[in-house]
Amino acid sequence: MNPFMYGKIVTGKHFFDRVDELKRILDTLEGGNNLVLYAPRRYGKSSLVKRAFEELEKKGFTTVYIDFMSIYSREVFIKNFSNAIVEKKSSSIEKTVKKVAKLIRGIVPSVLFDNVGNPQFSFSWIEGNDKEATLEDIINLPEKFATSNNKWIIAFDEFQEITKLNGESFEKLLRSLIQHHKNVSYIFLGSRTHLLKDMFSNKNRAFYNSALLMNIGAINISDSTEYLIKRFALDKIEISNEVAEYLIKRVDSIPYYIQFIAAEVWQQVINYDMHVKKINVDEAIKSVVELKADYY
Ligand SMILES: Nc1ncnc2c1ncn2[C@@H]1O[C@H](COP(=O)(O)OP(=O)(O)OP(=O)(O)O)[C@@H](O)[C@H]1O
Ligand SMILES: [Mg+2]
Asked: What is the CATH classification number for the domain harbouring 273?
């Protein structure tokens, strides 16, 4: 199997480097502060946060991750966010559902069983009820569950997309509620950097100055080189320091493209030459560019 992975959130042995960034994220969130993490597409934001969450879970925090990219309405937000929260409660789902029923106005929660018999959280709307009230209760739900011994950390990925949901009112509501949360910290991520930065540094916006801004850049060259050499070596493929560096520089050290091109190179040499040369890198880049040109 190809040891390189691209296009998905990477964890475990696929993840490398980002040691300093990881520390900064952990320190900020553990200290109870909020953080904004921005970088262009494919730099590895989502993977980095998943990585940070693994560490935080080990330290007794409860972490919840949701992606605003797929949230196109307030109803979908309510559904996705409540699901993500309920999934995180370690007590039985029936117990959790009872609690949720008390804490959230406007819905009737229930337990459904999926086709393999696993219990799942579900709910129906109470006719004619105010969805604004439901939204408020859902936003406050993490603070209801969190305690000083079990703090919660919430990641809102592609957070700039929140403006799709009825303009500024949702943004204002969210900010006005979460500023009172004592045992919950938030990390906001996004790839549309100017939009996201504006949300937190423009005086007229609800989230003005409410979180520390942090940017991640391309990945460290020597760490990436070491990673490539190691990963190829697992399949007894040789790549010199020089060629590994060449690959990384050709793609401007962007994590996604390092993995993408390395996967392509691996394909070329496995069961064949077992030795990576510059020409393999050039060919991989060329074939990827051609492949993409077919699409667009
Ligand atoms: N630390 C890392 N170690 C190894 N590969 C990485 C790392 N970070 C990112 N990648 C590579 O980049 C790809 C994209 O990572 P990820 O989805 O985390 O980035 P993103 O910034 O959230 O991207 P998007 O803007 O598309 O949401 C991954 O599939 C992986 O191939
Ligand atoms: Mg992402």
From this structure: 1.10.8
Q: Give pLDDT tens digits for 223-277.
A: 999 999 999 999 999 999 999 999 999 999 999 999 999 999 999 999 898 999 9
Tokens of 182: 């004592």
Residue 117 Cα, ligand 1 centroid: separation in angstroms?
34
The yes-or-no verdict on residue 101 having pLDDT over 60 is: yes
Q: Do 229 and 280 fall into the same domain?
A: yes
Locate 25 and state its tokens. Answer: 């994220």
Q: Strand 35-38 relative to strand 212-215: parallel, antiparallel, unpaired?
A: parallel
Contact 71, 156 (CB under 8 A): no
Query: What's the total number of domains in the chain?
Result: 2
Assess whether 119 and 175 both reside in one domain. Answer: yes
| CATH code for the domain in which residue 134 is found | 3.40.50.300
Residue 44 CA, ligand 2 centroid: distance in Å: 7
Q: Which residues line ligand 1 (CB under 6 A)?
A: 5-10, 14-18, 39, 41-47, 191, 255-256, 259
The Cα–Cα gap between 190 and 196 comes to 6
The protein residue whose alpha carbon is closest to atom 13 in ligand 1 is 256
Ligand 1 atom index nearest CA of 4: 31
Q: What's the gap in Å between 219 CA and the centre of ligand 2?
A: 16
